[in-house]
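The passage that follows is intended for readers who have already worked through the single-chain material. We present the inputs for a multi-component assembly, then the predicted structure in tokenized form, and finally a short commentary. You are encouraged to pause after the input and sketch how you expect the pieces to fit together before reading on.
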Amino acid sequence: MIFVGINGVFRLGMEVNLLTLDAPSQRVLMMGNVAIARGAMEAGVQVATSYPGTPSSEIIGSLCQVARQAGVYVEWSTNEMVAFEVAFAASLAGVRSMMACKHLGVNWIADPFLVSAYTGVNGGLVIVVADDPHPYSSQNAEDTRYYAKLAKVPCLEPSDIQEAKDVMILAFELSETLQLPVMVRITPRIAHTRGVVVLGPISRLRRKAKFEKDSTRYVMIASNTRNRHPWLNKQYARAAELAETFQLNRLGLVPSATVGVIGCGLSYGYVREALHLLGAEDRVSILKLVTVNPLPTQLVCKLLSSVNTVLIVEEIEPVVETDIRSLAQGLGLNIEIKGRLTNDLPREFELTPDIVTMALAKILNTPLNNATPNEVISEINDLVIRRTPFLCAGCPHRASYYAIKQALKKVNRGGIVTGDRGCYNQGIHPPLKAIDTCICMGASIAMACGFNQAGIEEPIVAVIGDSTFFHAGIPALINAVYNYAKVTVVILDNGWTAMTGHQPNPTTGITAMGEPTKIIKPEDFVKACGINHVKVVDPYNVKAAIDAIAEAINHPEPSVVVCRHLCAIQELRAMKLRGIKSTPYTVNISKCNGCKLCLSQLGCPATALENGKVKIDTYTCVGCGVCAQVCPVEAIEESS
Amino acid sequence: MAKRSVDIIISGIGGQGVVLASTMIGSAAVDEGLDVKIAETHGLAQRGGSVMSHVRIGRDLFSPLIPSGQADAIVSFEPLEVARYVSFIQPVSGIMIFNTKGILPMPVRLGMESYPSIKSLITILHKYSPRIYPIDVDQIAINAGNIRTSNIVMLGALTASIRLPFSIESLKTAIKKGVPKGTEEVNMRAFTLGIEAMKNLNRNYMIERT
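Having made your guess, compare it with the prediction:
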């Protein structure tokens, strides 16, 4: 059964059916994230976990659509750390398991991940991490390969969509050979690229879970850890040996070449493209590197010792480049090593074929043409207006932000709003401009505590979504109560993890696999954390929301308001299923005084300025009625 | 350097069907044994952002991203979104097809900035390539029977403007497979009307040139 419209499946269409298509050697078009899921199916994965995060979400999002029929257990966990630990335990019980997340999720799993390298694993354990070099949808552009180095585990980077599938099978095998977790690192240009994949057979492997107790391995007290550290170092050295013959690495030596290039993962495609554009394919030796950590030193040396100059092309940080510098120094090789450290490649943003072409043109001393004159480029830049993302028409978060701003106005003591991660960070854009901070999952509440403890006397309001609250908000809320922080927390409960493509979460009432489950209400936790003042309101009722938030701000203790209304997109889908149509609103021109408050306070995409007055696009309007409540002259009415 | 692939940029706003249209081209190409790469940028697509995909068709493709100045065509579902990606177009010979119906960015809705005129847009696009085809795609889609078929109208227009390395029949099959059940007929009508619109434009274009 396909649950249309959730788990990011809107973007995937019927592609998820390819996950169970048992047609070896058939060529299909697949998104990279789905190819990874397919690879896991071909490897016989039995447990797959994740917390959604762009650009990784479709990996587990597609798997959970076929989980039941395929006999795979799939879950959206409450956070990445939980996801990792669930998959890790499954691996200890002998079954193949995987965990997927975006780069920031690795910060959350760091603790158990780094220890799992000491215990080792039993069933293959693969961690798929989607980094975001640009970044397109993240709060930083960290390079998670450093975590693989930190943990001393292998890291593999597929170079195209076919390899995204194939590398999963190899990663599970490698994990079991070494008894180490294996990291597979991708970027949006794998995750969200569709390419041709030749299918392999789906594994029928289903192991019976069995946990064989061994306290020397699984009870990581210091004395046991001391025994495992040498073991880990031995396995890590073995990983480097196995990398020498890893089948996806490829060395293409050109006998007369004085220049060599190492293309790591996807970058290899850019290197090939650049050399083709420069007509220099027969002048350069290339190493395609999939085993980016640890390096296959002998293979790399074959390239290094055959050329005078080598360019290392990799996404984000000079991870491989630094290793190669160290390797060349150790071997006393007299070779010029170029890359990000030498500014032959930029230190920020994602790579493109253009960037790699320019770097290679310089090294090869090949002229480049076709450059667009700068004045034409600036003309275009002046013309093209940026499309700042916004909250959807009828989004309940818009109403909540309006209510928070009005409540702070009412209390009239200034105010700081600490934000969090989710759709609602679009509240930064005009005209709402409603949040003052947005750092990481759960930071809203803890930072609010910090501002208060530092002595800020203005009201401090933390804004956090339902999924983020369960992910990381609860410990911070307990901290607020325990340490007497006078903060007001507004929980925006729309019942879904909407930002990443509508994954269900503890407030939704269904699991990743579509089974009904208990709805967990944030306010129950709030009370259990020791908060005495908690109110639940519907933000579509603007006055009630303003009053509730103002009252909470004025309350002497830490206080919570839950703004609960179903995500507007989900509400529309539910109405459509039941054959109900929403009633859009219109502006009654005879009553409208042209104050534009509805537009300037809310910025709903269903409204726009037309000839000095606001017009509502009835096609986009979902009929939430919030603007009608904001209008001071009652000029916004339900259309007949 | 011979061009190894047919490269098309498809752009628009979240929800306009950019990804679906790209995938239909991709499926048609895969069905005929070709190599395909479609790189999509849709970070915040559902929330009014710009969406674009690089569609590359050929044999043994390398990069999923099209290098600057290499795109044979830009197909845009919105006027601003053709300008945003114009640096990809092949100078002089590249084709730019776009829907003339503008979708206002938030700064324009708020009255903070103004939306450029189609005329000023075309003047600048001309500096990259003269082969510019503005089409009232929404009207054609309405004529076909459903405004939601506008992305299929664009696909029709595309097939009439450049030589795709696969048969139109394969594309039609991919479209029929990709659209919601029961809408195959209206989509086929939209596809044909798109082809006709492009042929008419091309005729006028030839007249203008002579």
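Commentary: The mean pLDDT of chain B is 92. The helical segments of chain B are 18-31, 79-83, 106-109, 118-125, 137-144, 150-159, 168-178, 184-209. How closely did your sketch match?
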